[in-house]
Design a protein that fits this description.
single chain; alpha+beta; four-stranded antiparallel β-sheet; 3 helices
């Protein structure tokens, strides 16, 4: 595959998106990130903020992640103490850059 074709293919590959809502505890972010690190993964997007009093919101994206791995990571995130909600979905990277 030519470099141009590979680049176009990557632009349209699935991207796993995670949204985590949790009680704002110091250990939540490293525990969520550790789930990626244990698999040698570095999310392409990592955004964390305290949106309301004591509510932590984390958004993470990981391109090219197989669906079963995405589901496993989401289930593992739900087991972390202080995590209230984990949403995970696949979307297509439309290459907007």
């Amino acid at each position: 595959m030519s470099p141009v074709a590979a680049s176009l293919s990557d632009q349209h590959s699935p991207v796993a998106y995670f949204l985590v809502r949790a009680h704002a505890e110091p250990g939540v972010m490293p525990r969520v990130l550790e789930l990626f690190a244990k698999r040698g993964l570095v999310p392409s997007l990592w955004l964390a903020r305290v949106a309301r009093e004591n509510e932590l919101t984390i958004e993470a994206e990981m391109p090219g992640l197989p669906r079963d791995t995405m589901d496993y990571l989401a289930a593992s995130m739900r087991q972390i103490a202080s995590v209230a909600v984990v949403l995970a979905c696949e979307r297509r990277n439309l290459g907007t850059s």
